[in-house]
Design a protein that fits this description.
The chain has 296 residues and is α+β, with helices and mostly antiparallel strands. It contains 9 helices and 13 strands. The strands form 4 sheets. It has a 7-stranded mixed β-sheet. About 5% of the residues have low confidence.
Length: 296
């Protein structure tokens, strides 16, 4: 976000300048401002200031909500069947196992004729906490994949990727899917949840309810679909701890059964409650191995 702001400020100064002298002065002012903002960013969250992964063997450390990743790999802006979004955020890095999954998904959806997959946040170059409300995505094992597809033969400009929004597929007041839901979204979830390395997939409860109703035959993959608020426009994919990542702290396994009988609580209307100011949470401490990544 900071890099995007600085780029836009520089562009505005260049367009507004009427003389070389004004352009030089304006640009110098913006450069100084960006440098100052970078220093503030680095002090507030040193993880967000890191621009490159660490060298060495890939390792996921800590929890999904309090961890980091060593030896991460970068997902390119455009790969077969994939378009990476919000590149200015530098959250297109992950453990190699995560990139293998994302690339397999893109290849599968492309070959099935559904188009290109739009990939949102993975992790930052070395994981760690972000500035936003994303508490997870810290250990390089989480990926946000948009339900919205993109035509495989149509380019997607880098600038457009910063402004294009994910599309909701849930009509929440009616507790049903919108007409834009198609076989593409169903196949995206089925393919993902059926993969061995995937630990769970967070989706809107309305989406899982629909799939519980229409799925025939093999249903074991439905167990990995976990209802969670705010997932009407994308799925949040979480991998199990990869082999060799001994410092990775896994989440509990999903309960037995397909989970289709436990959706009413998520879907039924509830009386409005007065919002109370939440108690401030203590920031979870990161593993010792993560602190070492900040200085490599």
């Amino acid at each position: 976000m900071l890099n995007l702001l600085c780029r836009r400020l520089l562009h505005s100064c260049s367009n507004a300048a009427r003389t070389r002298r004004l352009r030089t002065a304006s640009t110098a002012t913006v450069v100084l401002l960006c440098l100052a903002l970078s220093m503030v960013q680095a002090r507030a969250n040193p993880w967000a200031a890191l621009e490159h992964p660490s060298a060495g063997t890939a390792q996921a450390h800590g929890k999904y909500t309090a961890g980091c990743v060593a030896g991460a790999q970068r997902l390119a802006p455009t790969e077969p069947g994939l378009r990476t979004m919000r590149l200015e955020r530098r959250r297109n890095y992950g453990h190699p196992a995560l990139l293998r999954y994302v690339r397999a998904l893109g290849k599968h959806m492309l070959e099935a004729g559904f188009g290109a997959v739009l990939v949102g946040d993975l992790s930052m170059p070395r994981g760690g906490p972000t500035f936003s409300n994303h508490i997870s995505h810290q250990s390089g094992l989480d990926a946000d994949v948009w339900f919205r597809m993109h035509p495989a033969d149509r380019p997607l400009a880098l600038a457009r990727r910063e402004t294009l929004s994910a599309t909701s597929f849930v009509d929440w007041p009616r507790r049903q899917l919108k007409p834009n839901w198609s076989e593409a979204q169903t196949e995206m979830l089925r393919f993902t949840a059926a993969r061995r390395e995937v630990q769970r997939v967070f989706v809107s409860a309305v989406i899982k309810q629909h799939l519980c109703q229409v799925t025939r035959g093999e249903r074991t993959w439905l167990a990995k679909l976990r209802p969670w608020y705010g997932h009407a426009d994308h799925m949040h994919v979480r991998l199990s701890c990869p082999t060799g990542s001994h410092g990775c702290r896994a989440q509990a396994a999903v309960p037995d059964g397909d989970g289709c009988d436990a959706l009413e609580w998520w879907i039924k209307p509830r009386p409005a409650k007065k919002r109370e100011k939440p108690e401030p949470r203590a920031k979870p401490s990161l593993p010792v191995a993560c602190q070492a990544l900040l200085s490599r």
